[in-house]
Structure to design on (230 residues):
């Protein structure tokens, strides 16, 4: 319910468009130590056949280059066929699962999809990672949800829901959760710390919160129609 993606368009990229953009990416004169192709949506596995075609194409024609792939998924379409493909490509593929925590928390904003996700499968993958979004209506369960996800072995990348639903009361509750989370990690020095403690919190009090994804050098996005956005 908090996703910023326009769900009405239902656009899909063709393999020819994807192939063309991969060729352009590999043809740049600069040589990089790593090339990363990220499949994003909506839900990327709605276009599983396209993803499979792109990965096969890169493996066939650009095997000499260090190309890796990333996918952020809600997990609901990862059936046995997709699982088999993920395992077969796990050396070049990193999967991040979108999971907001325990069943009740996750189901509140994600259409009651918790029981459709094979959490142990995602936890069994190399460097298991979760994207967790903290919404105002579940902020008081933040630490409990992070502990729950970490109990599976996930590294938790935590994000605060953007928008205007945050109130001073919610922020006070968040402050208590952050204090408790710091104490939790201080007593577990070997535990990898959730990204929540590196987030910028100032925008919760801003009238003009930032919108959109992060920017990186040498990174760009391609729309379903093949338009490039630097």
């Amino acid at each position: 319910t908090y996703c910023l993606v326009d769900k009405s368009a239902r656009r899909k990229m063709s393999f020819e468009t994807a192939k063309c953009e991969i060729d352009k990416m590999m043809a740049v004169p600069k040589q990089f130590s790593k090339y990363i192709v990220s499949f994003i949506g909506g839900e990327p596995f709605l276009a599983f056949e396209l993803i499979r075609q792109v990965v096969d194409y890169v493996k066939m024609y650009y095997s000499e280059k260090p190309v890796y792939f990333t996918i952020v998924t809600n997990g609901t379409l990862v059936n046995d066929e997709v699982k088999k493909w993920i395992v077969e490509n796990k050396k070049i593929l990193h999967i991040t699962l979108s999971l907001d925590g325990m069943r009740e928390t996750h189901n509140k904003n994600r259409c009651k999809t918790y029981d459709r996700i094979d959490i142990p499968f995602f936890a069994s993958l190399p460097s298991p990672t979760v994207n967790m979004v903290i919404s105002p209506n579940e902020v008081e369960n933040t630490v409990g949800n992070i502990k729950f996800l970490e109990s599976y072995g996930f590294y938790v990348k935590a994000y605060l829901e953007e928008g205007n639903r945050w109130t001073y009361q919610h922020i006070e509750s968040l402050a208590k959760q952050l204090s408790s989370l710091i104490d939790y990690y201080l007593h577990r020095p070997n535990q990898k710390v959730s990204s929540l403690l590196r987030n910028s919190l100032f925008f919760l009090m801003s009238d003009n919160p930032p919108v959109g994804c992060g920017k990186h050098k040498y990174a760009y996005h391609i729309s379903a129609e093949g338009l490039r956005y630097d």
